[in-house]
Amino acid sequence: MNSARHLITICCLSVVMIALGTAGYMAVEGWDVLDALYMTIITVTTVGYSEVRSLSPLGRLYTICLIFSGFGFFVYVATAVVQFVVEGQVQTLLGRRRLDRQIRRLNGHYIICGYGRIGRVLCKKLRSRPLDLVVIEKDGEQIPVMEEDGVLYLHGDAANETLLMRAGIDRASGLVAALATDTDNVFLVLTARQLNADLKIIARAGHEGARVKLKAAGADRVESPYAMGAASMAQRILRPTVTSFLDLAFADRRKDIQMEEIPVSPASALANVMLRDSGIRQNYKLIIIAIKKSDGSMFFNPSFETVILPGETVIAVGEIANLQKLEKVLNPQGSARV
Q: Rounded to an integer, what distance in angstroms lies between the CA atom of residue 147 and that of residue 149?
């Protein structure tokens, strides 16, 4: 039984005991409800006030029984109330310290600033992969939601330098600015860029005019959910088959096919090997759609004579199990992302 339910139970039993004590005085002494209730309260709590009326021998015997039974129960109730308050505070403190310890151990993680509609969906998508996340949220009403979702979080202003340092911004791989307003996101990006010059920053823009400001503040990429939503609807009208394929390739619940990007490590056995000699199509039943070069350029539909070079990123489509096998070969040091 949890603490809250236990407290409610003993409070209900306290009401029952007082009601029974009151009924007993009414039956033994013939008193009215108020006098009987008053006598029960001062007897159970051992306050020590004088009786409201003279007691009969039977009434005194009943009072003795009520003192022995009621006082012990009253002490138990008081102890339970104090324990409930103290335990709640201790559990909150210990829970916060546990979260802080987990955050301090992170390295190469992502900081999500804002746990509103966009931030929560983003975290859910990212946590479908083994990515470490820390959420910073200012709204205290979101704390139960974050605890229910099981995310590591910090409560406070995301643009606060101390809070960002607690989130491990100096060790983080990236930060997502998904706060409610463009002004807050601009200030957050400025602060984050000053704390970590190498941090990859993605910012949310509510208005088209905020893109330039967020870029100037230091954001690597700026995304507008409204523009992306409109573009997606347009593509569903203009290219319904293509969008259906992309939905299939990126659907988290589909296990038969998925599109994935896999970096090529210098330690890979397929580094500096031609596609025709790699056995990717024969051994893994995968289709190589494109290769992202180390300079950022994209090479679509590579030929069988294309050489897989270290530092490139291979974009492949196929079954998840086969993608995992290929990642272990292409990126043996950082596999298990798929």
A: 5
CATH code, domain carrying 280: 3.30.70.1450
Question: What domain range is 74 assigned to?
Answer: 3-101
How deeply is 195 buried, as exposed, middle or buried, from its count of CB atoms within 10 A (0-12, 13-18, 19+)? middle
Alpha carbons 206 and 180: distance in angstroms, whole number: 8
Decide if pLDDT at 324 tops 70. yes
How far is 286 from 315, CA to CA, in rounded Å? 10
At a CB cut-off of 8 Å and minimum separation 6, what does 242 contact?
235
Residue 316 · residue 324 · CB < 8 Å: no
In a domain, 238, yes or no: no
CA distance 37 to 26: 9
Q: How many CB atoms are closer than 10 A to CB 262?
A: 24
Distance CA 216, CA 329 (A): 39
Q: Are residues 224 and 119 in the same domain?
A: yes
In a domain, 244, yes or no: no
| Confidence grade of residue 90 (pLDDT, cut at 50, 70, 90) | very low
Burial class (CB in 10 A: 0-12, 13-18, 19+), 242: exposed
- Please state the domain count of the chain: 3
CB atoms < 10 A from the CB of 130, how many? 9
Distance (Å) of CA 181 to CA 177, 187, 203, 207: 10, 10, 11, 9
Evaluate whether 189 touches 200 at the Cβ level (below 8 Å). no
Residues 263, 167 share a domain: no
The pLDDT assigned to 9 comes to 77
Name, in order, each residue with C-beta under 8 angstroms of 43's C-beta and a sequence gap of 6 or more.
21, 63, 66, 67, 70
The answer to whether residues 243 and 235 touch, using CB atoms and an 8 Å cutoff, is: yes
**Confidence check: pLDDT of 52 > 80:** no
Same domain for 122 and 219, yes or no, is yes
Residue 247 forms part of a structural domain? no
139 contact partners, CB below 8 Å, separation of at least 6: 115
